[in-house]
Amino acid sequence: MMFLMYPYAQKRSRCIYITWILFMVIGLFSMYFHMTLSLLGQLLDEIAILWLLASSYSIWMPRCYFPTFLGENRPRFTCLVLITTVVSTFLSFLRPVINAYALNSIAVHILYIVFQEYKKTNNKELRHIMEMSVVLWAFALTSWISDRLLCSFWQRINFFYLHSIWHVLISITFPYGMVTMALVDARYEMPGHTLKVRYWPRDTWPVGLPYVEVRDDKNC
């Protein structure tokens, strides 16, 4: 995605690279956590996810959803997000057992924004990728909750794969979510440009990695 969305990053903000780097860091920390099942591994994994969400909020959150007291000032909003994230990072050490639930609860706010933007647009491409993002997230969350709450049942029938399914689905959901937010953000922050959704390796394949292509709107 860093390679495929290079033109977009050049047009919008190079800070977007931070989000993709954090996505890779999550993969490394998650691997370490599942290899060791240690508290340190759990905290590294969860804190990396927290900071990924914070960077995404700072870059892509539409200004119309900023708290009223900030107006539409993105630098102030970014400072607020960073302060909240630093505080949350320290709080994550107090009761690690609730961290995963707290992180998943942030999705409620993201879903609210997606729903609001879905109602505002008639763009079929944007609506489609929003729908795909929500469906993938719903399947991923269902796998995670089922694994947590019905663990003994799945053990009795010798089906031990729901947590791994969660990882696969959420790893697919994140790129779809990033492209969704990039498209929403472009409506507010990139006037004069049109973003077209593409899929790697080919648009015609039934499954692919989504990314955006930036086109300049030129009046002849």
TrEMBL record:
Sample GO molecular function, one term: metal ion binding
Q: Which UniProt keywords apply?
A: Hydrolase, Lipid metabolism, Membrane, Metal-binding, Sphingolipid metabolism, Transmembrane, Transmembrane helix, Zinc
Pfam families this protein is in?
Ceramidase
**Catalytic activity field:** an N-acylsphinganine + H2O = sphinganine + a fatty acid; an N-acylsphing-4-enine + H2O = sphing-4-enine + a fatty acid; N-(9Z-octadecenoyl)-sphing-4-enine + H2O = sphing-4-enine + (9Z)-octadecenoate
Q: Where in the cell is it found?
A: Membrane
| Known EC number | 3.5.1.-
Record InterPro entries: ACER
Cofactors = Zn(2+)
Q: Is Lipid metabolism there in the keyword field?
A: yes
Q: In which pathway does it act?
A: Sphingolipid metabolism; Lipid metabolism; sphingolipid metabolism
Q: How does it sit in the membrane?
A: Multi-pass membrane protein
GO biological process terms on file: ceramide catabolic process; sphingosine biosynthetic process
Question: Which GO cellular component terms are attached?
Answer: endoplasmic reticulum; membrane
The record lists Zn(2+) as bound by: H34, H163, H167
Which family does the record assign?
Answer: Belongs to the alkaline ceramidase family.
- Its function? Hydrolyzes the sphingolipid ceramide into sphingosine and free fatty acid.
Q: What is this protein called?
A: Alkaline ceramidase
Supply the gene name.
Answer: ACER1
